[in-house]
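Sat 14:20. Reprocessing the chain from the morning session after the first attempt stalled halfway. Input below, unchanged.
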Amino acid sequence: MEREDLPKVWKWDNPTDSRSGNRPDAGARFEKELPVGDAPYQLYSLGTPNGIKITVMLEELKLLEDVDIDYNLYKIDISEGDQFGSDFVKINPNSKIPAMLDQSGDAPMRLFESGSILLYLAEKYGKFLPTDPADKVEAINWLFWQMGAAPYVGGGFGHFFAHSDVIIKYPIDRYTMETKRQLDLLDQVLAERPYIAGDEYTIADMAIWPWYGRLVRGEMYQNSAEFLDAKSYPHVKEWADRINNRPGVQNGLNVDYGTIH
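Finished this time. Tokens:
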């Protein structure tokens, strides 16, 4: 197709009634009630990089002696379209995992977007976020960096390298270049300090590790670590392995999901 062959106004030419298929509209597609447990937090999620961030955070908090926290965890199967059910959309109108309810107050409060949930929990419990203003801002800087950067890895590199039915060199080259640029940035940062935002383990590490740490460890997108020459980012790899060995991280990776059906 040439550029001049594009229509003046794009129209969706593949309508489907699929619960899970991509569509150009938002909102609930069917009625679906979500279970609600007795714990203060109700987490509706999946073991994807964005979902892992929150289970790691919650499990890290559970290991602290001065924090009393509990949650119920339910699986949202995005391949089945659970994220488009009516109750889930009430919590997250954007239909993406993770989504969470804090029902510890007078009325349940909805939380969506993984960065927002991490920041909320860190501030509520005063953990994994520095108290020094400059250090706190640095951690938030990197938290928001991950929010903006990771779509190039997942929706860009991951999609065209691992999930697309058609292998197209141009987008693979484009998103591989950007993914490697990001890894090089992290490698330079981690050459100077032990954690993403400085000397402390923070929510910035929790946000970035499930994407970039697991990527260089060869745990995302088959053969991608070799394709990206992950060994050429030694500081990222050392950090990734060190974070992986944390008990809270392992607990967050191995949580059990309840069913919503």
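The beta strands are 41-45, 71-75, 99-102, 109-112.
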